[in-house]
Amino acid sequence: MKWLIIVLVIVLTVIVYKTMQKRLPDSGGIAINGPAVDETSIAAALEMENAQSTVIAIDNYLGGRFYTDPSQMTSAELNFMYVEEVEREVNNGGFKQFFYNSSGDHAHEALNALGIIGAGHTAKLLSLAMELFPDNRVPTDRDDRVKVLERIQGDAEAVWHELDDRFFQYEDDISSLLVDYVNANRDEFH
Q1: Average pLDDT in the 85-107 region?
Q2: Which of 2, 4, 32, 61 gets the highest tally of CB atoms within 10 A of its CB?
Q3: pTM of structure
């Protein structure tokens, strides 16, 4: 079942990407794994037919700054990207992958951001996944985090696997929640 979901996500991503290429002009914005979106095109992205396409387009636009100079981003833009890191990493390899990769640097910020956008179920899952770390604190330094992960991995894997399965039930419509969040904070997305 998990593999079927993964295959469906991949197929949908390809379809969304092809749709975005037709609908959004490559107008000199930042492009990461998709068409470029400039600031004026955020409005166009918000008018796309489905929330997933909108989120992917905005993620592509914000990703350049997020991965090179996040200090230039607003708190709303950062919240968007923290939520996207959770969704992207857990969909690709579960909570284990989220914590092992650089996305784990922002685990606490992601937990807060999930609450801000109204993704309470997903926030609860992330909180439960974080409880396996000593004192519920996920180290922000990747090397330190990997050392802790190596110590807790035996106990954590079964719990994370169960949390992955609960995540894949998609009780929170994260894409729609993110679109609502962007619309409510439109003046903070540059």
Answers
A1: 98
A2: 61
A3: 0.79
